[in-house]
Write a structure and sequence with these properties.
This protein is an all-alpha fold. It is built from eight helices and no strands. It is elongated and about 65 Å long.
């Protein structure tokens, strides 16, 4: 293996880490983990799933654009980032509005014991929002890493496989480490009587993250 091949491997490792530490990847998971009281294992599982989706979507896009070339993939990246950012905005607003309606519903009924509350509704809502978030995060490919795979094509399938594995390991590990330890730190913070508005705030922050990276994309 020559120096150029080592350089390409190092490039996808570095890109995998640096791309994943951008907050629009892991911060939504952290906010959901705190608000839904996920355990460390649940947070790690969600981060692992999002990271795996991120890797798979990147590699699939790389294959699809192999014949078209890096220039097409670069132009395509703008639309991918825009769609992902808008999806985060929509998801965040969905969470915030749903939480606001739930609070209004509770305020309206107070503590009336005759009012039935179906716990399966909450479970279904939580599972649905978790699935939606992971689909949004996991379906967003890392376009900037694709040219490195194009450049490695002339060195054979062996190098491409090694690069894919290194990229997967660096991306997923960064997802899990950032999400788990950030969520652990955030769960220690208490906001007193404002805790009941946590779901609304979490949704608005996720939407704000989407807006920020829509207006100022890093790509």
């Amino acid at each position: 293996m020559n120096s150029a091949e080592f350089l390409l491997i190092g490039a996808v490792f570095t890109i995998g880490v640096l791309h994943t530490i951008v907050p629009d990847h892991w911060l939504p998971i952290v906010l959901m983990a705190r608000q839904r009281h996920w355990s460390k294992g649940e947070t790690a599982k969600a981060a692992f799933q999002a990271g795996t989706g991120h890797v798979v979507s990147t590699l699939v896009i790389a294959v699809l654009f192999w014949a078209a070339g890096a220039a097409i993939a670069t132009r395509f990246s703008y639309w991918v980032e825009t769609i992902t950012s808008l999806a985060l905005v929509g998801f965040g607003l969905w969470v915030a509005i749903g939480a606001w309606r739930e609070l209004s519903h509770e305020h309206h009924h107070g503590h009336d014991p005759t009012h039935d509350h179906d716990p399966t509704h909450d479970d279904g809502h939580m599972h649905g929002s978790r699935t939606a978030l992971l689909l949004i995060l996991g379906s967003s490919p890392m376009i900037e890493g694709i040219p490195a795979f194009f450049a490695a094509g002339k060195y054979g399938i062996g190098l491409l496989v090694i690069m894919a594995l290194v990229f997967a390991a660096s991306t997923i590990a960064t997802y899990v480490i950032l999400s788990v330890y950030s969520a652990k730190g955030l769960q220690q913070v208490r906001f007193g009587r404002f805790e009941r508005y946590g779901e609304i705030v979490s949704g608005l922050v996720i939407a704000a993250v989407g807006i920020v990276f829509w207006i100022w994309p890093l790509g």
